[in-house]
């Protein structure tokens, strides 16, 4: 990370999740039959971490590498170079038990809850599924009741299907599902960008509350600096596959040093100006 680094964490504390010098290269399709396959560097020497119980934001324009880094952080893709660590251990060197523990402990919430929840399953079945998939031996009914309370929903949702809910309620259900295996880290990839503006703050407040009340670590990914600034205490800015700046949200707004950060600040101000003009504020 750049000079403006973390305010968090004593230097000897171990991050719960960390990417160290991570590169991710994709081979692109051949342009001609005998042509070379070009490579695209989606991540270049990325250092990113979250301390236990910390809420960290990852922000950047479209194509900057946020989703690629998410796939690396959750262990879905092995980086072409560098190390991906969970509690100080290289995720790709873990044995079977360690790998299961990692899969349980790091859960993801995606942008669109309508595509992350199976439309043919009741909410109850969807919620219990991660316990089965990860072989977690707990009383499913008790756990379901507990997580529904944590996300502010009642047990009446259990017999319903996804199409019976609004986007905001459905995102709460997707968050409940992510909480089922008792994760230590939740990685939320654009969790509010598909929601009405009026609902966005409710979902962000829920994520903030979960960090405060459960001691969860949150990695919040968004293209909108104001979304991550509202929810997290430290923000990393990505551009063209690199982390170009890291700092407290207020400092990034006041004194952006990287061009990409300046562009994100400007776009927030432009949106606000537009809202003022349209008398929505
Ligand atoms: N599987 C893949 N094969 C080839 N190129 C890829 C692949 N996945 C991502 N890329 C490329 O890597 C770069 C980073 O993409 P990525 O989706 O991580 O960015 P992003 O910041 O998440 O963008 P967005 O906000 O639009 O989702 C882009 O140029 C993208 O086209």
Summed up, what is this model?
With 281 residues, the chain is an alpha/beta fold.
Task: Please summarize the sheet with the most strands.
Answer: 6 strands, mixed
What shape does the CA trace take? globular
SS class: alpha/beta
What name does CATH use for the topology of the domain at 17-112 and 186-277? Answer: Rossmann fold
Bound molecules: adenosine-5'-triphosphate
Query: Which strand order spans the largest sheet, edge to edge or round the barrel?
Result: 6-7-8-3-9-10
Q: Assign the CATH superfamily of the domain at 17-112 and 186-277.
A: P-loop containing nucleotide triphosphate hydrolases
Helix content: 25-40%
Mean pLDDT figure: 90
Structural Rg = 19 Å
Q: What are the segments in which pLDDT stays under 50 over at least 5 consecutive residues?
A: 1-10
| Gap from first CA to last CA | 36 Å
Total strand count, please?
10
The SSE order reads: EEEHEEHEHHHHEHEHEEHH
CATH class of the domain at 17-112 and 186-277: Alpha Beta
User: What percentage of amino acids are in beta strands?
Assistant: 15-25%
Number of helical elements:
10
Report the CATH architecture of the domain at 17-112 and 186-277: 3-Layer(aba) Sandwich
Keywords: ATP-binding, Nucleotide-binding, Transport
Family: Belongs to the ABC transporter superfamily.
Pfam family, one: ABC_tran
GO molecular function: ATP binding
